[in-house]
Specification:
Blueprint: H1 3-22, H2 59-72, H3 74-77, H4 96-109, E1 111-113, E2 116-119, H5 128-140
Antiparallel strand pairs: 1-2
Helix pairs in contact: 2-5
The structure holds heme C.
Heme C binds next to α3, α4, β1 and β2.
InterPro entries: c550_proteobact, Cyt_c-like_dom, Cyt_c-like_dom_sf, Cytochrome_c550/c551-like
Organism: Chenggangzhangella methanolivorans
Keywords: Electron transport, Heme, Iron, Metal-binding, Signal, Transport
Amino acid sequence: MKASRLVLLAVGAAALFAGAALAPRAWAHGDVQPQPVNTDGLAPLGEEWKEENPYRGDPKAIAIGASGYNQNCARCHGLEVISGGLAPDLRHLEKGKEGDEWFSQRVQGGAIINGMTKMPSFAGVISQEGLWAIRSYIESVHVDE
Ligand code: HEC
């Protein structure tokens, strides 16, 4: 094969590769689909987002949240909320209302840093009930830094 054709081939391959790398992706770590959380048995919360976790300390919410967490958050934040370093260790998330506020911002807005989706938004994907259940679980395993 002539050298000029080889060069063309290489350029073509590079363009393909760049195209694939630039394609918009909603998920930073592979195309894992978010899982809705079954919140049967928890008091419904309505449309408006609560400022504070309405289920704090509720054992049923904690159990539901554990499962919701493992299906949706563990692949980045670590199984049993013990981070392997890919994403912050949520055991250190502040307890109470302040932690609730930061939690709400991140689960609703996700984390887009320098145009890269480091964490997807879960708004409209997991219900408010499901997200507060996950927050209840995270707070139940809180450890001080
Ligand atoms: C694709 C990976 C990924 C998934 C899935 C993910 N997160 Fe995150 N999350 C991150 C990263 C990365 C950050 C740190 C962003 C930054 O640098 O501020 C973060 C930050 C957070 C924070 C703020 C922590 C802090 O100390 O600032 C909270 C709260 C949080 N995530 C909750 C969740 C919950 C709850 C879920 C599941 C419903 C979840 N995340 C799913 C990657 C992920």
